[in-house]
Design a protein that fits this description.
The protein has about 290 residues and is of the alpha/beta class. It has nine helices and 14 strands.
Amino acid sequence: MPWLEVSIQIRDSQLESLEDQLLELGALAVTLTDSGNQPVLEPAVNETPLWPRMIVTGLFVAGTAREAITSTLSNLDFIQHASDISFAELEDTDWERSWMDRFKAMQFGQDLWIYPSNLPVPPNLNATIIKLDPGLAFGTGTHPTTALCLEWIDNQDFTGKTVVDYGCGSGILAIAAALKGADKVYAIDNDPQAILATNENARRNKVTERVVTGVPDMDTFGADILLANILAQPIIDLSSQLLGRLNSNGKIVLSGILEEQQQAVLAEYQRHCKSLELKVASGWVRISGQKNAN
């Protein structure tokens, strides 16, 4: 079935009125995109991140009367002209399959690969293979912060180790650690969708017995390795909690840090860690090191 797409550029304060109106007109979905170049990377706690100016798009079934939509939306105070409202017709497609077709196998380091379920793994590929599809929660390996962590994981010996993946998202780092030989991996997140995704991905990769999901107050003290691919400010604010989960001389990997934020993170962790190393990719930084001996 084809679709009718309606797009309007607005300011963030106008979102609620426009969103309500689109839904009342019969929109099946409403999406937001940045109309400028002002990404919101670290919203405050309990704050919904919005761009100062954005494009709001409503998706309607084909044949919906454009005149009725234009007439109703033109009555909103912040829409000055009918020309502010644009329409586009979309052909029907299998959106999930289309996305999957663009999601290819990816290599990290020497021996760690991610394969989507629609691609067969070459029989002669002697490597650690993570089966992962785009879906619930963030983290398919395509973002530099995740890639930096996977490259680090590929170069480590996880045999018999206890690992914490703090802010697990899709569970990709936890699963990689388990496949690399970790004895127990605690995948922690405060988002129920992330827990759901991690459990499903762990099942798909046959590591459910070694990957345990939980919320941030889960008791995971005594870890040999801690991975935290979150954001710079939480990494700083939670330093005592993150380090407190590690054994003496335990390894720590921090990612989700912009280059301009690295000094603030280093200032916090240099007091408690040794052998800190930095790796940069596409403006993002990974910091790795060891917790000081007690």
